[in-house]
Amino acid sequence: MMPFDLILRGGRVIDPSQKLDAVTDVAFSGGKVAAVARGLKADPGTDVRDVSQFIVTPGLIDLHTHVYWGGTSLGIDAEEFCRLSGVTTAVDTGSAGPGNFAGFRKHVIEPSQVRILAYLHVSHAGIFGFSHRIMVGESEELRLMNPIEAAEVADANRDLIVGIKVRVGLHSSGTSGAVPLDIALEVANEVGMPLMAHIDHPPPSYEDVLARLRPGDVLTHAFRPFPNTPATAQGTVKKAVLEARERGVLFDIGHGKGSFAFKTARAMLANGFHPDTISSDIHQLCIDGPAYDQVTTMSKFLCMGMELPDVIAASTVNAAMALRRPELGSLKPGSVGDATLISVRQGQFDYEDVVGEHLIGDRKIVSEGVVIGGRWWHPN
């Protein structure tokens, strides 16, 4: 048995992939999780950390981020963000398309200490016109749709590309409606990958988008405010939403600047409809509010009544399953050696959604440390 490189000693380990919630140790060796048990023996060179004050979870996965820093105007720095937010895997959702993915890979993904995976945009240059002053929906112009090269680039970069991304809605596809979605689905079918669909204002409608999605596809911005909300005016869940979940469509939060409302979330949670995945949709226009980061987005659901293990599952094992990367999002021995340390602070905390509603919550999830590849990575 290889010596342990790192032992996290005595934390409360919550790992939904194993239905585990217990005070125990977690050991890492050779970049992977080596053991989860009480009283693990340290070797002479083992880095032992007393984490008895914290909760240890599998490394958090943020399924919706924009981290093509310097390559797009909406990109943020992945390493800086992940340190503060407890994220070990940032999934970029369409910042780059087939025309500029090579630069994203070489200049951002490969040098990054944080794992970055990507949904490739079907539009040639990805989300290129998104800033405080310029807002051009890349799916408005069908001449930018590049399905042939998107399939080629996705196939050639399967180590990093986990699916195909498209944005549809009034702000992103204009009068093109759902046509870009149909093109993206062709690419996803061709390469055998899932698709992530963004939705904003109609057209197309929430129902039109869901009708096209396949099992394993992800609808992000799933708890949007009106219009294109999944809840009815009477506070029930729309029939099309229930039917889509039944056939395996996944519902992701993707908070962002304009895509999450407390009113919608309250209605969905009251009906027992939890998100499959909780993600921040972090980018330059929401990192200073209202999204801020992954743990703040998770905190909002904790304060609205989701149990802590369910919130953690939506940011670990559920996200790993959506990515089809079962080696992530778990502390099972043999899994990738990533872990996140969090605490849940008590008090009064002001949370804001994208329409300006405030929620005073009594708890806040705080990132306290990060392990990446079996090594302590957090600067503190």
From TrEMBL:
InterPro entries assigned to the protein according to its UniProt record, in alphabetical order: Amidohydro-rel, Deacetylase_Atu3266-like, Metal-dep_hydrolase_composite, Metal_Hydrolase
Enzyme class, UniProt record, top EC level: hydrolase
Entry-linked Pfam families: Amidohydro_1 (PF01979)
A molecular function GO annotation: dihydroorotase activity
Annotated Amidohydrolase-related domain residues: 55-344
Keywords recorded for this protein, A-Z: Hydrolase
Enzyme Commission number(s) from the entry: 3.5.2.3
Domain of life assignment: Bacteria
NCBIfam families: PRK09237.1 (NF006689)
Descriptive protein name: Dihydroorotase
Organism: Bradyrhizobium yuanmingense
